[in-house]
Amino acid sequence: MKAAVLHTFDESLTSDEFVRYENVPDPKISRPTDVIVRIGGAGVCRTDLHIVEGIWRSKVDVKLPYIMGHENAGWIEAVGPAVEGFRVGEPVICHPLVTSGHCLACRRGDDMHATDSSFPGINANGGYAEYLLTGTRALIKLPKTLAPKDVAPYTDAGLTAYRAAKKASRHLLPGQFAVVLGAGGLGHIGIQVLAALCAAEIIVVDRSEQSLELAKTCGAHHLVKADGHEVEAVLAKTNGRGAEAVIDFVGEGDAVARGLAMTGNGGFYYVVGYGGKIDIPTIDMITTEKTIVGNLVGTYAELVELMALADRGLVNLHTREYSLRDANDALHDLHAGRIHGRAVLIP
Fold first, then answer.
1. Which of 3, 57, 86, 311 is the most exposed place for a label (fewest CB within 10 A)?
2. Within 10 A of 35 (CB to CB), how many other CB atoms are there?
3. What's the pLDDT tens digit per position in 273-284?
């Protein structure tokens, strides 16, 4: 099969070629619960750029060359002998983690903390290819309203944004405020989820006018340009008290300090983006009673919930399509900030 393969790390992200489009062996079924999916769309994520940089080397044991791509959807191509309930040719979306279902975390539905798992595109070959090896527990059938190429980024970008926004929505009331930092690939989904799940007013902060315009179409009530005065602007819109929830999809540079400054007393700061550091005096944590919440990608059940919202048209992805052979163009455009929404590779 054809695949876009990572052969070397590039810490500076200056190479013209991050991945190489080439022939590789087809994946094979080796376990009874294995499933091979013919890829209809593979999302391009900023995590993929971090993988190219080598940031994930300290977190996972990856041996190059290997295939990135952890946001995948397509059609069932082949199934192992123990697979039930799925037929060849059915359209599916893949939860990013392949778990055995045997450990306690699996049985609790806490997929991301499973002790027996693989993560295609992170620590195993992923979906920057014509075919993907996954497992039956990762599959969700797609309704007729949703095509694989249009929903693939939901499996990480959408699911991560959904998890954070769902947590926030549980305590947000009418008359309160939620701030979304970053209206890009994850942020524009998080805005829609907040609008679907709660009645709080949504304030979106971003440096890009184009991203702010996208945020407006996604349900944002207030738009704030990140120009160095965004904290003051948010405080003005919240009558000086700050927001009850801040969801930080940036997580690096000065976004962390500014996000915490926008969070009101007793409020919640949800960390989604990464790369920066949280530095706050303990006395400030005590006197303000702020809560800092980390967020991984969501669970299988939460992906089912997100597909229900998408099926009803309450959440829509803004995507830009690339051919699989043009994976380097997609990665470079993402790195340069030329993608507003999500990029999707199509074999």
1. 57
2. 26
3. 988 899 999 999
